Amino acid sequence: MRTFAPLGGLLAFGLLLAPVSLQAQNADACWLRGATPAQAAERPSPLGVVAIPMGEAEATLCYNRPSAKGRTVMGDLVPFGQAWRTGANEATAIHLPFAATIGGVEVEPGSYSIYTVPGETEWEITISRSFERWGIPISAEVQEAAVGTFTRPAALSDEMVEMMTFTWEAHGEMMGHVVLEWENTRVEFPIHMAGMNH
């Protein structure tokens, strides 16, 4: 029998454990094409928002959450070796009020999209300045706006995750890992505030 992850995942900081005012504040940071945050939350692939607190500042990760619905996800619905928006609907984006390092890529304060090239054992992850856009196509223009690319291992998990979920795992006050889980795949990448050691 499949077991499904609870809506929102096991977040240390995120929608489920955040007060309503914080949820609204974070959702308002998300760029949405022709929809309010409330409307986006009702989509078949609903809006997900993850707070990334670092000290007194807080970054926001915005993404849209597709479901498996009985389909084979990795290697089929999400082909290996092809650029993927890493979600549904609008581009997955991170909004940073501070300079940071994402997976070894140094970024200035601002907003960036995140797209990936999944593989069986390793994913390529790209940070792009082009974020106010629909998630596809990942055009030459989007690729040319890349700030940097890095790779991270893909791990298999025992628990089936029905709906794609990002969570934040803090490792102290100024660093942590963004964790992506869907189906039986888990990929995580580090973020730390500029000036902090890994």
Question: What does this molecule look like?
Answer:
The protein has one domain. It contains three helices and nine strands, in the order ααβββββββαββ. It has helices spanning 20-28, 37-40, 140-144, and strands at 47-54, 57-64, 93-96, 100-102, 105-107, 110-117, 122-128, 146-170, 175-193. A nine-stranded antiparallel β-sheet has the order 1-2-3-6-7-8-9-4-5. The chain is globular, with a radius of gyration of 16 Å. The termini are far apart. Mean pLDDT is 89; it is low at 1-24.
Describe the SSE topology.
Blueprint lengths: L19 H9 L8 H4 L6 E8 L2 E8 L28 E4 L3 E3 L2 E3 L2 E8 L4 E7 L11 H5 L1 E25 L4 E19 L5
Antiparallel strand pairs: 1-2, 2-3, 3-6, 4-5, 4-9, 6-7, 7-8, 8-9
